[in-house]
Amino acid sequence: MNLKEKINSSLKDSMKSGDVKVRGVLRMLNSDIKNFEIEKKMEVNDDDILAIVKKNVKRRKDSIEQYTMGGRKDLAENENEELLILEKYMPEQMGEDQIREIVQNVIKQFGEASPSDFGKIIGMSVKETKGLVDGNVISRIVKEELNE
């Protein structure tokens, strides 16, 4: 079952069970997928859907941060619930030890890595992790490794 079929199946299940929150999130996700198909004039594949899900996850995380800073815990909790729904369609994330190992290998490729190589190291690390890791986590680990 590909990702699009999995999302549609979950949407049908949420409609049958009356789960309004899941139904709303998956309808919005389906809408984003449909808009992508219309814009690109092609059928989406799992990689495209994964990119759309990642964008939605990032949007939710940013909203949670903004609502928390603004003192709106109720809205932050709502976004967090939606984030948990979306994360079910993301591949399993790498552990921090795996990420650190990848970053260390990339730094070794540079030989004498300096803080000016920060962007290049992050770019190569993101490529190595195949997009399975949040860029903020990679950035934090690269900073830690370069400061050691």
Number of domains: 2
CATH topology of the largest domain: Hypothetical Protein Yqey, Chain: A, domain1
Biggest sheet record: none
Distance between the termini: 45 Å
Radius of gyration: 18 Å
Number of separate helices: 7
Number of strands: 0
User: Superfamily at the CATH H level of the largest domain?
Assistant: Uncharacterised protein YqeY/AIM41, N-terminal domain
Instruction: Write down the CATH class of the largest domain.
Output: Mainly Alpha
**Secondary structure category:** mainly alpha
Task: Give the mean pLDDT.
Answer: 89
The CATH architecture term of the largest domain is Orthogonal Bundle
Please sum up the structure shown.
The chain has 148 residues and is an all-alpha fold.
Overview of the structural elements:
- The protein has 148 residues and is mainly α.
- It has two domains: 3-87, Orthogonal Bundle (Hypothetical Protein Yqey, Chain: A, domain1), CATH 1.10.1510.10; 96-147, Arc Repressor Mutant, subunit A.
- It contains seven helices and no strands.
- It has helices at 3-17, 20-40, 46-69, 73-87, 96-110, 118-128, 135-147.
- α2 packs across α3, α3 packs antiparallel against α4 and α6 (118-128) packs across α7 (135-147).
- The relative contact order is 0.09.
